[in-house]
Each structure stands twice: as C-alpha cells, then as structure tokens.
Queue: 2 jobs
Job 1
Amino acid sequence: MKKLISIVIPAYNEADNIFVIAESIKRVFSTLNYNYEIILVDDGSADHTLEKISEYAATSDNIFFLEFSKNFGHQLAVKAGMDHAFGDCVISMDCDMQHPPELIPDMLKKWEEGFEVVYTIRADDKNLSKGKRSSSSLFYKMLNWLSDIELEPGAADFRLLDQKVVNVFRNFHENEPFLRGLVKWLGFKQIAIRYNPASRFSGKSKYTFKKMVNLALHGVTSFSIKPLYSAVYLGFILSLASVLYIPYVVYAFVNNVEVSGWASVIMTIVFFGGLQLIILGIIGIYVGKMFMQTKNRPNYIIRSTNIPVR
Ligand code: UDP
Ligand code: MG
C-alpha cells in the first residue's frame, strides 16, 4: 500500500493561483511513489476562489475543500485542514507558489529517515521589499527575546508533520493558534531545511502591516508571560531610584534650597502615566485572552466541504 500524503493549502482570495499550485503538486507527485490528497481551505474569500476549487475538484478524486463561513485567518485555515487530513503525514503550504512544491521530495525523504517534523526556513529573499524583510527580522528578534521558544528567522508555515504530530494538534483548541511556535513547543524529532522563496504567482500579500503586528504581539503573548515580569522589574528599578532621590528632595526642602521645576514635574507625570498605561495594556491583553478562551467557542466554522465522512 502506498502511503498517503495530505497537502493542506489555505486560500484567501487566491482564485488565479488554485490551478497553478494544484497542477505543480500533481507534477511533483507524478515522480514519487506516494498517493496524495490536496485539502484547500477557502478562508472566506470574496473572489472566485471557491468556484475555482470546485471546478478543479470535479476533475479528480483527490482534491478536497473546506469552505469557511467567513475569514478566520491563515493559522486557523491551516489548523482546519490538518484537522481534516487523513494522510500518513501532512504538508502545509501557501497557495501563492512562494513555497516551492519542488521541495516536497526532500521533505518526504527526511520524513522517511524518521523525522516527525520537517520545517522549512526561507533564505533571505532579495526580491522582497526592504520593509518586509526588516519587519520580519524584527519579528523574530522580538519573539525570541520575549518568549521561551527559539524560532529561527525565516521559519515558514511550509512544513511536514507526521500523523502522530497532527493527532496531537487535533486536541489543541487555542482560539488563535500560532502554529510556528506551537510546532516548536511540541518537541518530537524536528529538522529544518532551507529553501529559496519564489515570488508570489498572482495577487498580492494578505499580510498587511497591521496583521503582522498582531501576529507578533500574539506570538509573544501566547507563548510567554515574560512581558508581565517587565512590570515587576520596572517597578523595582523605579522604586529604587525614587528611594535614592527622596532624601535629596527632603534635604532641599529642609534647607530651603529653591525647588523649582514645573516642567520636570509635568514630564515625570506624563512619562509615568504612559508607562502605567502600557503595563496596564499588557495585563489587559492576557486578561482578554483568558476571556476569549473561556467562552470556548468553536475556533472555525465550516460552511461546506466535499470531504466524505471517514
Ligand atoms: N491566507 C489565509 N487567510 C488570511 C490570509 C492569508 O488563508 O486571512 C493564506 C493565503 O491565501 C496564502 C497564505 O495564507 O495561501 C499566506 O498568505 P500571503 O501569501 O498573503 O502571506 P505572505 O506570503 O505575504 O506572508
Ligand atoms: Mg505569500
């Protein structure tokens, strides 16, 4: 019996990419001795993505789709695909050809060698805009500094997971999973391979600056409570400073040395007011997460699918 490989592809307004990616995966597998299935997850697209997928699915029996009831985001789209994948291993990749399907044979080779997680690291892409590159490198620096997991810069959501690992993931019900971090956190036998990203085949990136900032904030706060400690440390440092400063103020008062300084008082108030708000905000983010998670709502909602009940 040939092994079955599931390919999970999230798609958000990718109508012009569906055919291209599916065909190139088909080409790659024509040289391999595996069965494969493609699970395309339509993440609430507003264009003809779903029609293109259904059209393509009608031509072969190994193309499946999940249609979300609205846009739930990239991470949940991948999670949904994995939840419904049936393969001996699952490969997740983007829809826009930036993750080269030609890498699949190498990933499968590593998997056959016994690795349970094969993740990929994107080589620095000279084609990407400077802004995107530096924001991406800042993202990883911040994440590693503030959280307890180490992610390599350029770690991509292009990875192979053994069925064992996918089964573990099925029991995760975080309402905003950060897969890159979670996979690292899980353990198992992991290995990285490098690849040169291609440029987007059609359409433009769905990751706006706002979405990237959110992903970064979210990546940090879902993996560590280090930011909460910052309040404690800052508090200690500032209390110590004020303890040293208070005797001076008392001395100046007693000796009637003129204590001028309207400006410095206002600056201090404004500065510490800001600091307190930031720290309050950090605490707020964690409380907010607890609130959202305690509601226990479904993480994503599927409107339709052609995946048979199995
Ligand atoms: N994507 C998604 N939901 C979203 C945003 C993106 O399913 O809300 C998909 C998108 O269709 C693509 C992948 O996630 O397959 C990566 O998105 P994109 O290429 O826009 O990100 P970038 O490569 O620029 O980081
Ligand atoms: Mg892309």
Job 2
Amino acid sequence: MTPDERRSALEAIAKEVAVCTRCRLAQARTRAVPGEGNPETEVMFVGEGPGFNEDRQGRPFVGQAGHLLEKLLLTLGWTRDQVFIANVVKCRPPENRDPEPDEIAACAPFLTRQLEALDPAVVVTLGRYSMARFNPGAKISQVHGTYRPGTPESGAPDSLVYFLYHPAAATRDPAIEAASYRDIAGVPAALLEARARRANRDTAAGGMVVPAERTEDANIAPQRATTEPTERPAVALPATSDVATSSVAADGESVPTDQLGLF
Ligand code: URA
C-alpha cells in the first residue's frame, strides 16, 4: 500500500465508524472514536474503548488515561502523533462498563481493517480486552511487558504484539503505574526485533538484505523505513539499559531479552 492508499483506507474506515449502528453502543454515544495518528507509523496502540472525554471529543485517549499514555510515550522520546492509537470498540460503553462480547465482535472488522491498512511492525495492547484479541486466554498480570508474534486471526500476522496494562488501571494503582513504566521501556527492542523479522522475511522472499539494527545507533522513531517519502521527525533513542524486557522465542513464547544476546 502506498502512503496515499493507506491514508485513504484509514479515512474511509473513520467515516464508516462515525455513522456505524452495528451494535447498541451507537445509541448512547455522543461521537464515535475511530482512532487517530500517523498513517506511516510502525507502532499501533490499541485500547479498550472510549471513555467520557473521548466520547465528547471523538478522539482516543484524551482523558486522564490518555495523559498517562502520553507520559509513557515520552519516556521513549515519542509523541502520540508519531504512533496510531485506536480501540477495540469505537463507541463508549455506557458508564464506562466493560464492552460486551457481541459489541466487540460487531466492531472487530474496523480494527482488522485498520491493522491491514497500517500494517504495524508492533501492536501495543492496552489492557485485557485489547490483549484478548491478540492473545486469547492470557492473563494481563502474567504477560504484561512481554510480546509475541501476531496471529493471522488477530489481523496482525506480520507484527509483534506487545502487552501493556491499561493506563486507566495505572492511574488507580501505583504498582501498576510503576510496572507500566518498566514495561513500555521494552517496546523499542520489540520494534527492532520486528524490523529484523520483516527484513528476514523479505530476504527469504528474494528481497534486499537489510542488516539488523543495534540500539546504540538505530533510529528508533516508530517510522516506516521505506523508499517512500515520509514526513516523520527522528526521535531520540532511549538508553540501551532501559530498553529490553523480553523477547519472543521460536515457539512464540516470551522470554527475557537478556537471554537472547540481542544487544
Ligand atoms: N480508555 C480506552 O481504552 N480508550 C480510550 O480511548 C480512552 C480510555
């Protein structure tokens, strides 16, 4: 997909979401929240569903949880306009209740199409509903701070999926907040690994050999590295010692990165 095609696909999805009536959440919403961000990003964040502020503004993560998400991103030197942020359900569940399975199912094709259009190298899930789409049956308390390859069913077969606690949970619990800061520090390492996996895949398919990047000199901006023009600024690299927390073994299980000799 070219950048223009990607942008058009995302805009088309957003237009459909804005007028969607596929489930009961449409009745109580003020505005649908399709998601937003940089169409050329390599990193997509997926939350649960809009809350009060998001419902008013039609934008994801603009309340207290969003404020914390922005602070977490800043620890990597990233800003929200460098990534793409969306949700599992695009309309606010009344009183911020959990989304129902049929609501998640009704909204799922929108997220699938967003994943297909963005083709992110890394998907970062925020909370258990988002985690469940990519890692059904897992427990967030066990998998937070780890990542694994996306499956075809998840809609992100070419991605590494990185699990974080939901920022709203972090705003309520200092232990979860501390874990979230530790966990997000591992995302750049996942991005490097995802790039290397994609480069190897392209090589196997007869493409150019692209050496794996090292954290000391890599541009860890969450920016698609293509021959196509992009307008994204480079961002600073987090300290190597802060970066890696886990990685993915051949069987798809997450293991601590320091066992892999990656850096
Ligand atoms: N919580 C979410 O899961 N998504 C938002 O957009 C805001 C809060």
